[in-house]
Amino acid sequence: MKTTLSVIKADVGSIGGHIKPSARLKQTVEEFVRENGKSLLMDVYISSTGDDVALLMAHDRGVDDSKIHQLAWDAFMAGTKTAREQGLYGAGQDLLKDSFSGNIRGLGPASCEMEFEERPNEPFIFFAADKTDPGAYNLPFYLAFADPMHNAGLLLSPKMAKGFTFTIMDVNHTEGDRIIELNAPEELYDIACLLRDNERFVIESIRNRATGEIACVVSTSRLHNIAGTYTGKDDPVALVRSQGNFPATGEVLSPFRIGHYVAGTMRGSHHGPLMPVKLNSTISFFDGPAVVSGAAFCVHDGKFTEAVDVFDHPFWEWVRNNVSAKAAEIRAQGFSGPAMLPMSELEYGGVVEKMGELDGRFTVRKDEQSAPDGGNGRKKKAA
Ligand code: F6R
Ligand code: MG
Ligand code: MG
After folding, report:
1. With a 6 A CB cut-off, is 18 part of the ligand 1 pocket?
2. CB 168 within 8 A of CB 194
3. Of the listed 11, 43, 235, 287, which one is catalytic?
4. Contact, 179 vs 217, CB < 8 A?
5. Is there a domain that residue 372 lies in?
6. What distance in Å separates the CA atoms of residue 21 and residue 201, rounded to the nearest whole number?
7. In terms of domains, do 305 and 195 share one?
8. Residue 60: other Cβ atoms inside 10 A
9. Tell me: the pLDDT tens digits for 229-249?
10. Domain count of the chain?
11. Ligand 2 midpoint to CA 133 (Å)
């Protein structure tokens, strides 16, 4: 029997700003899914990361199943109703369309799904990030699947000897899914060439080349491409199968120790380090730091074990301290240079209007006008 794992997540309202959903909101979503998903789901796990609520569902209906997507959409609608009743901030924020139309993709919530034949034991990790976008996973998953500095199994295990195939999406292309498949290790430099641009090229999935098995899937939606204006960052989710033909769980986690700089945090418009946090964590400093949480499971006959919090360990306290220092360091330069995202990535329109206004106030000096400082030596009038 094949098992499908579907993760669908949305921000439909939170307490105290874009910080954390209320317990009642989460309960509403959970009760709705458990009640209405009885005949569809084999299991479900509900969690929050920052202001986002995620549904991790196991079923046997394959990916892109309209009933599963509708269930999640309706659950988030129910959650929105609770958010409105409680006066939560940003109620219904990620539900960008008025009604469900067959597939959740393009409607606002982020999703990633994989279908596979269960191994006798099937470990996997579910990641959820807040205050950042899908490109945040580019570096850690590149390193976990293609770099022996993190994945010792690439050297030591014959099961991964042929490497992995990366499917990478151009998320700026809105008319359809524009994708490319590249093989590690032969095409490592091509993969790196694309993945350096986190805002445009995003890992969609990774497969084991020897077996063709799906190893990793990432949500690739860009909210600002869907809505055309700022509605929040894309706050990506991902699933990674681990052990055996895939990286060990510890190899998948290894690159998250870097706390690399990603796009996001305050107003979705800055660079900041990605902090690995405990499950159900909140958001704080400068609407950040951008966070990622990880829940490890085994799934068997479509039933989940309890979740293990992969970043709840003394090692990650040390990482969090280092990442805090990195966050403070880049914040010290405020809006200047690499601290703030380039114009094309700013999530608020205000600065564009301001630039328009200022543009009209610029003048070009005529040759015969002398500058107050004598022109700084640039254009000296002939004597
Ligand atoms: C970033 C984010 C927050 C908000 C900020 C202002 O993704 O959600 O940083 O952008 O708190 O929020 P508004 O514009 O709702 O007042
Ligand atoms: Mg929000
Ligand atoms: Mg969010």
Report:
1. yes
2. yes
3. 11
4. no
5. no
6. 30
7. yes
8. 15
9. 656 668 999 999 999 999 999
10. 2
11. 13
